[in-house]
Amino acid sequence: LEIVGRTEESAKHLMAMILNILDVARLEEGKLALRRKPVSPPEMIEACLRQVTGWAARSEVKLVSALTGSIPDLPADPELLLRVLGNLVSNALKHTPPGGCVEVGATGHGDTVRFWIRDSGEGIPPDLLPRIFDKFVVGPGEGRNSLGSYDTGLGLTFCKMVVEAHGGRIQVESQPGKGSTFSF
To answer: CB neighbours (10 Å) of residue 44?
Structure first.
């Protein structure tokens, strides 16, 4: 697929938006089958960070991988899990100013794994937090993003639906001016 007049990065962003739209509809209809297999959380995090290293460098945002404890493999759909991590890390990069930091980590507790994405960005307004995973919700100042595309407000909805389809739950903590932490 060639998207004329777009940088490779903006074309990837546009494709991710289209996939989110289609997959949210499939998830709502129960028609998106999970293809579970053993997945290594550290390898998923490394793959995600490789995808965004160039963007982080151009944005002057430090990327940090933080893995703690004994982290077991998970029975998960690797493609969907990587897209969840990618959506959350991309959002963190979009909302973190130059000189800031985005940390992506995981910790293991028995057979459970907790992932987190923490940024030192602008944070989320308190009135938006209860609706942040709802469809078509975008924060103030969002809409047209730095890649020249429009945000659909479906990325976090997609993340929530995929995490729940795996039997998990996603949450966010945020303070304006101090950043956000998404975990699942």
So the answer is: 22
* Strands of the 101-109 sheet, one edge to the other: 62-68, 101-109, 112-119, 179-183, 171-175
- The rounded Cα 146 to chain-centroid distance in angstroms is 17
* pLDDT for 3 beyond 70: no
Distance, C-alpha 154 to centroid of its chain: 11
Residues 44-48, mean pLDDT to the nearest whole number? 97
Is the model more confident about 143 or about 157? 157
Residues 108 and 41: their CA atoms lie apart, in Å, by 9
Enumerate the β-bridge partners of residue 37.
Answer: 76
**Residue 154 structure tokens:** 């479906």
Within 8 A by CB and 6+ apart from 34, the residues are: 76, 77, 80, 165, 166
DSSP conformation class of 121: S
φ/ψ of residue 89, rounded to 5 = -70, -40
Query: Rounded to whole angstroms, what are the CA distances from 131 to 50, 60, 156, 177?
Result: 30, 30, 10, 19
Write down the pTM of the prediction.
0.84
3-state secondary structure of 137: coil
Tokens of 78: 């690797």
> Please, are residues 161 and 31 in contact by the beta-carbon 8 Å criterion?
no
